[in-house]
Amino acid sequence: MEPAVTARTVPEQQVPEKKTDSKPDSHHLTESRWVRIVLIGIALAFLGLMLVIPLVFVFVEAFGKGWALYWEAIREPDALAALRLTLSVAAIVVPLNTLFGLAAAWAVTRFSFRGKQWLVTLIDLPFAVSPVIAGLIFVLLFGNRGLLGPWLSALDIKIIFAFPGIVLATLFVTFPFVARELIPLMQSQGKNEEEAAACMGASGWQIFWRVTLPNIKWGLLYGVILCNARAMGEFGAVSVVSGHIRGQTNTLPLHVEILYNEYQFTAAFAVSTLLVLLAVVTLVVKQVAEWKNRNEAA
Amino acid sequence: MVRRLPFGRRAKARVLPGFGLSMGFVVTYLSLIVLLPLAMVFIQASALEGQRFLAMMLDPRVLASFRVSFTTAFLAALVNAVFGLLVAWVLVRYRFPGRRLIDGLVDLPFALPTAVAGISLTTLYAENGWFGGWLKELGIKVSFTPLGITVALVFIGLPFVVRTVQPVLEELEAEMEEAAVMLGARRLQIFCRVIFPSLLPSLLTGFALAFARGLGEYGSVVFIAGNMPMKTEIVPLLIMTRLEQFDYPSATAIAAVMLLVSFFLLLLINGLQWRASRRMAAD
Fold first, then answer.
1. How many whole angstroms separate alpha carbon A65 and alpha carbon A153?
2. CA A67 to CA A197: how far, in whole Å?
3. What is the DSSP pairing of strand B2-4 with strand B10-12?
4. Which of B:29-68 have CB within 8 Å of A?
5. 20 to 30 A Cα–Cα from A45, which one of A117, B50, B203, B246?
6. B169 CB within 8 Å of a chain A CB
């Protein structure tokens, strides 16, 4: 790596080191105790300030004025409508993108073809696009003044400022999640087991259900739950296409925004706790999935 | 066994089934959900006359929003590069109680809806908030300033640096450091000359990922930014404002430039990762 170090230091220091350093070399393989404590301290302080306090703060604000107000904010009809909408969007988006992720991972990791690297890059594309632009593209396509706008309004189909638009924008934003999780996992597992099954006469679906799926189930679960978290929590893209109609096209994150902008802070944070719980469950599932993956690999 | 494939390429016969089905579905779905809609931006932007496009981009408010977005995203990525490296280092190299919990917590910004992060940070850093009141005595104002945008982007970008540096740090072989110790290098020397150069590609990748994410971020920023034109208005918000005014040509033009920047960053990141993986394979 750095020949300069070795060349210069060998002749001078080899001899004195042996004489003076009675302690073993491990002394130099890690930092001194104080340096370690200081570094751990700085890292923990940074994470505490940036991650833990903002998270805890949501609950402090939500329950600050008592349980009664909290329940009222959650049970309010608009909040329940937002929750229902968020759940229905996820119920459509997550299965579709899971199916896509499985198909993409199967095609990319089990076969070789030209342009594979490009395909993988294109799958990642939605990660690089700002959520606002993700919403904008569907407005340009389906909005009143969009490409298909006149045609859609003649047929009386409403996509933008309605449920289908929210689904499309969410599909776009959460597009890569499952594929991203599965491709490296299936790449590292290789295709020997599946090929052996095929040689013994198993059909494609048999191979998938009996060999592939059991091998990838934890990675798949994590991809699905991450996709779900983003689908339920997406704000920017949905904000562009939703039109913010209360009780109709407001998802949970949009409902939080409206409450906050109306200075109903306690209610905004109360509804936020639902989304925080979603995030916490996601993180727990991730830990379990990683742990299971490691155990099964070992 | 060799047979001809449609693309005029020779290859081993495929043992596994399902190539046509999965590939067909992937390409169709990708085109419908991602490629065709994205192409709309460029189709609509190219319909604009060159001069009009230029005039739109040189509008002072547009230029100011690009300046705000780029500087805040850059600063936030820089902060994340420093602290992300530190967090990754502490998590990989040291053992302390609660390490696993903290390791899991690093992913929080991936999982937490951005609007929630936005309102929480805004209230904390507002002048009557926990941090805001304390910072106010020091004469620092965070909410509704570019500094506030940076704080939100640091929150959003942190996992990118940690999660790209961490695996490389875990894979780093101890032999190199042991050899350096034998040769009499001091700990700081080893870090600067042996460890840091091996981490640099992943650190740059993490930086670029955090920067790219910061440029496009909307949800966590709109609450804390205050959204004053020329001062704290970020590009995604300006696109949003233009859309709400039904100024589609301007929104499209800004989005097209933004997309080109993002695509460039994506290619850069892929290039960096490709080089890093090749280097690891060569070792």
1. 47
2. 57
3. antiparallel
4. 29-30, 33-38, 40-41, 44
5. B203
6. no
Question: Which residue of A121, A136, A199 is in closest CB contact with B251?
Answer: A136
Please give the helix or strand (H or E) that residue A154 lies within, else none: helix A149-154
Contacts of A283 in chain B (CB under 8 A): 104-105, 107-108, 111
Contact A229 B111 (CB under 8 A): yes
Phi, psi of B10 (to 5 degrees): -95, 140
Which residues from A are below 8 Å from B189, CB to CB? 5
Residues 6+ apart with CB under 8 A from A202: A210, A211
At residue A284, the 3 state secondary structure works out as helix
Cα B185 to Cα A13, A16, A22, A29, B92, distances in angstroms: 9, 13, 16, 10, 22
Q: Which residue type does B119 have? A: I
* pLDDT tens track, chain B, 283 positions: 444 445 544 445 578 888 999 999 999 999 999 999 999 899 988 888 888 899 989 999 999 999 999 999 999 999 999 999 999 999 999 999 989 899 999 999 999 999 999 999 999 999 888 998 889 888 888 888 999 999 999 999 999 999 999 999 998 877 878 888 888 878 888 888 888 888 998 999 999 999 999 999 999 999 999 888 888 999 999 999 999 888 999 999 999 999 999 999 988 888 887 777 776 666 5
Helix (H) or strand (E) holding A20, with range, is helix A3-20
Count CB atoms within 10 A of the CB of residue A167: 22
B16 and A198: CB-CB below 8 Å? Answer: yes
A111: nearest CA partner in chain B: B19
Among B19, B22, B175, the residue to mutate for chain A (most A Cβ within 10 A): B22
Q: Which of B240, B95, B213 is nearest to B152 (CA)?
A: B213
CB contact under 8 A, A5 and B193: yes
